[in-house]
Amino acid sequence: MDQIKKRLAALREEADEAHAKVEELSSKVKTLEQDNLTKEQEITSLSHKNQLLESEVEKLEGGIKDAKAQAEESGAHGQQNETLQRRLQLLEEEAEEADRNLREANDKLRQTDVKSGHYERKVQALESARDQWESKYEEMAKKYTDTKKELDDFVAEIGNI
Q: Beta-carbon neighbour count of residue 23 at 10 Å?
């Protein structure tokens, strides 16, 4: 009788531990899903920034072409040519800066994409672990119910004696 009570207590404790582990894993899954959502939002933001930088690069390249065309037309006008050359140099520097920003944004986008994939795999692993713990919890609950029924039957038999 004492052994059955001890076994029931052990099964209850094991079931409680399994339930606590399921809750902990569920919490971790939620946290990872939130991290994943944040990373996806960062990817979207970086993609938008990337598009803006690309359009700025195109605009600046158009400005460079215009400045070069104006510089060729004003070859006879020394001071005007000098001003255009300075403007062209500034536009080229801006284009290089925009290109550098674009490369950095692309690198961040790639890194974020890699991290996102990592977190997705991590979420899948945790969901699998959670499912295993839930299955074990259900199995332990069934064992507990069966053992309780056996104990009740045993107590009823002893009471009939």
A: 12
Q: What 3-state class would DSSP assign to 75?
A: coil
CB 44 within 8 A of CB 103: no
What does the alpha-carbon distance between residue 130 and residue 137 come to, in Å, rounded to a whole number? Answer: 10
Res. 1 pLDDT band, cuts 50 70 90: confident
What's at 26, amino acid-wise? Answer: S
d(CA 12, CA 5): 10
Q: How far is CA 86 from the centre of its chain?
A: 46
60 neighbors 91 (Cβ within 8 angstroms): yes
Greatest alpha-carbon pair distance for the chain in Å reads 124
How many other β-carbons are positioned within 10 Å of the β-carbon of residue 46?
20
> Does residue 136 carry a pLDDT above 90?
yes
Whether the Cβ atoms of residue 67 and residue 87 lie closer than 8 Å to each other: yes
Structure token pair of residue 120: 């997705």
DSSP summary character for residue 93: H
Say which residue the tokens 């801006």 belong to.
94
Residues 6+ apart with CB under 8 A from 87: 67
